[in-house]
Structure formats: structure tokens, C-alpha cells
Amino acid sequence: MRLILIWILNALALLTVANFVPGIHLDSFVDAMIAAFFLGLVNTLIRPLLLLLTLPVTLLTLGLFIFVINGLLFWFVGSVLRGFVVDGFWPGVMGAVLYSIFSWALSAAAAQLMRSNNE
Asked: What is the DSSP letter of 36?
């Protein structure tokens, strides 16, 4: 139940990002659900490997290279899926940053609501 709620909240965060960033386009909520699933999959499987491989560059840039990795992965998912389009690298970076902020905020609000309902 909690996993499905987080998935729906991530899809809502992705729809919000598509409304804020001009270079990101989503066709429907179903496409947002699919894109949120694939973003979670990519961030779980590919991102740790890339972080490990680019550790020297990340250390030299004091962690700023992680923004590049996140933007590239966001752009990659946008180029693979049909209903989710990311126009380029910079919209990918901006979209990844906003997606993580919105996703974090929605997940924190949902956790707070669930915690208050259990008390």
C-alpha cells in the first residue's frame, strides 16, 4: 500500500515538473506513472553504478557532478519512453532537481499524514 502511494506521489511530482520546466512534456497521468516507475528503476539500478564509476570527478567537483548524472539519467528516461519527453540536457538537470524536491515534499507530507492517522 505504501509503495503504491509513493509511486502515485512520484507521478504527481513528475506532472508538476512537466508544468514548471518548458523542455519536459508528459502526455497523460498514465505516462507519468510509467515514467515514475522507470525513473525509480533507473535510480535504483544504474545510478549507484554511475556514482561509483565517476567518484573521482564527483570528489573533484565537490559533489556537483551528481547533478550532471541526475540530469543525464532523467534525459535518458525521457528519450526511452514515448509519452515522456525531455528536450535536452539542461531541461533534464532542472527536471531532475525539481522532481527530487517535489517528490521529497510529497513523500514527507504523506508520511506525516499517515503518522498522524495512526496516533
From this structure: H
Total tally of structural domains belonging to the chain = 1
Range of the domain at 64: 2-118
Q: Note down pLDDT in tens along the chain; length 119 residues.
A: 788 999 999 999 999 999 999 999 999 999 999 999 999 999 999 999 999 999 999 999 999 999 999 999 999 999 999 999 999 999 999 999 999 999 999 999 998 988 888 77
- Residue 24 β-bridge partners: 86
105 vs 23, 27, 63, 92, 112, CA distance in Å? Answer: 22, 24, 22, 20, 11
